[in-house]
Amino acid sequence: MPDAMPPAGTSPPSLVIAGDIGGTSSRLILAPWDGAVIAEAEGPGANLRSSGADALDNLVETVREVLFRGRRALRQDSPGRDSPGQDSLGPDGLGPDAEVAAVALGISGAGPARAGEVRRAVGERLARLGIDPARILITDDLHTAFLAGGVGDDGLLVLAGTGAVAVRFHDREAVARRDGMGWLLGDIGSAVWLGRRTLEAVAADIDGRGPRTLLTEEVGELLALDLREGLLPPSATGDPRQDLIRALDEQLPAGAPAALGRFARLPGRVAGDPVAREILEVAIGHVLETVQALDPPGELPVVLAGSVLAGPGPIREAVEAGLRAEGRAFRTAPTGLPGALLLARELAGDLLP
Q1: Distance from C-alpha of 174 to C-alpha of 291, rounded to nearest angstrom
Q2: N or C: which end of the chain has fewer CB within 10 A?
Q3: Cα–Cα dist 318/285, whole Å
Q4: 41 phi and psi angles, rounded to 5 deg
Q5: Does residue 280 contact residue 271 with C-beta atoms inside 8 Å?
Q6: Per-residue b/e over 11-37, b at no fewer than 16 CB within 10 Å?
Q7: Residues 10, 69: Cα–Cα separation, whole Å
Q8: The whole model's pTM is what?
Q9: 198-211 b/e (C-beta count within 10 Å ≥ 16 → b)
């Protein structure tokens, strides 16, 4: 997003913070209420269900970072103004002449099941940075992703990132939903689901319970292991099956299934492999079936979001081809930030005198 600053000598702008907070990563932007973005920051994911109990503490650090970068941008834009020393800065790091008018965060996992808990926890943490909880809007990343698609207030969102869910919106309100039940109960087609299915297929291969698959070599390369013979490097356990277990224990933090997503792209790399192809076809078929179930007449526009459906790869290509074949209008939203920024500016407009 391009940087832009108001002319030197004007009053410091009222600022808004917008955030797209996924299960794997977070991205925040800082902008004047009526101007272009002046600072961005990225950090770890913050979904309590898939990223662990420290997720919201990570979010606070990312907010602190975008505020610091915003302060630096404001100071650089006003070279004639005395640079404030550290003692003159407020707890948010922007100084006494800057105001955070509103914050809007689309947070993965902040749906109805845990919305109240997430709102309270985020409000308490951001208050430490001098941000009034009354100026904070917390919604789930589904609303911000849908609004980022720019299709209006009515339509479908199909999101497949760390998790997976589909929602029908009417007047910006979610009126029907499929999946989004978490990695244990669903999230079919998500990065975590793809990673888990990939590892299950590899385990079945090397254990002799399932067909041979090129996914075994792909996983082995990613983990720097020979999962066939245990020769390169020499097997630490004498059994490639146990080597796989040991490597996953070391690389997948307990209580953080989002890390399974690192294996999600492997089926697409060997799409001609029958086992990989079956995994891909289940994900593709699930998306198209879900769209049909939520909008049988095919009248509503579709917003595709999340790393699996908005990033390059065979799943996105096949889903787009399927939607075209059905005559459905669709757009891709690579990030929910435009939707979060829209909400932040609307909130600021309501709060500013």
Answers
A1: 15
A2: C
A3: 9
A4: -150, 145
A5: yes
A6: ebbbbbbbbbbbbbbbbbbbbbbeeeb
A7: 20
A8: 0.80
A9: bbebbbbbbeeeee
